[in-house]
Amino acid sequence: MKEKTALITGATSGIGKATAELFAKQGFTLVLCGRRQERLDELKEALGKTVKVHTLSFDVRDREAVFEAIQSLPVEFMPIDILVNNAGNAHGLDPIYDGSMDDWDAMMDINVKGLLYVTKAILPQMVERKAGHIINIGSTAGKEVYPNGNVYCASKHAVDAINQGLRIDLNTHGIRVGAVNPGLVETEFSDVRFKGDSERASKVYQGFQPLKPEDIADIILFVVTRPYHVNIADLVVMPTAQASSTIVKKDL
Ligand code: NDP
Ligand code: 8X3
Q1: Residues with CB under 6 A from ligand 2
Q2: Of all atoms in ligand 2, which is nearest to the CA of residue 149?
Q3: pTM assigned to the model
Q4: pLDDT (tens digit per residue) in 181-191
């Protein structure tokens, strides 16, 4: 039987990279996406020893680049059975009256519109085959709004709505759609949010045990390996020390 082919966006770091590594252990054929070509090359070198890996370097904000990249896929990497819509980040953590409009644009363009473009580029072959699985990486920020999270939370609330909308509209096509919504996971996320201020970023994860990217990868693997009649529609996962976006038990 042909191994499943998974396309993962944001595979160069954090949750996406851990998912790529775990999927490789399962023998999945991989299409790994991100902007940082060097990191994609490293992944291809490492994972390509055991499974088929193709890399696509593009910015999810660039609509044409998204479609060109997906259309360039070699035949052995088609069709895509599993799409993990993971690329995204927070940019800034400011009260809305002080927010940077460039940060707002980045979050809406990457987390929302980028996810839509990639999905739109992949969907026709899933619709045609009446099969496929889309996993959207949302966030606890898509379930509740926290102070200064404003536009990042809005972008993840949009992912929550798109997850529901896709599931509804693809229902008659037999395509599985679900979201995994993590709380605090220690990745490069806070480095990006705080624009390279690694001291500030590391403080986010001090005094408690945050989730690791591998914890989320494990859950994504569980989601995609259920029997086809089982669709995990929406899943929220937090560190044990976290009760909500603002309640985290820290021993500092
Ligand atoms: P990382 O910063 O470690 O990874 C983000 C990934 O997204 C990178 O691979 C990056 O690749 C890619 N990416 C970012 N912008 C673009 C872009 N414009 N075009 C293409 N790819 C892009 O963060 P995480 O692993 O933590 O984040 C992954 C997802 O998980 C995000 O959607 C995030 O919102 C979500 N999430 C994270 C949580 C956390 O606490 N860490 C909690 C809840 C949700 P490259 O730079 O090479 O393009
Ligand atoms: C990432 C979790 O709480 O930093 O989506 O927004 S949080």
Answers
A1: 139-141, 149, 183-184, 245
A2: 6
A3: 0.98
A4: 999 999 999 99
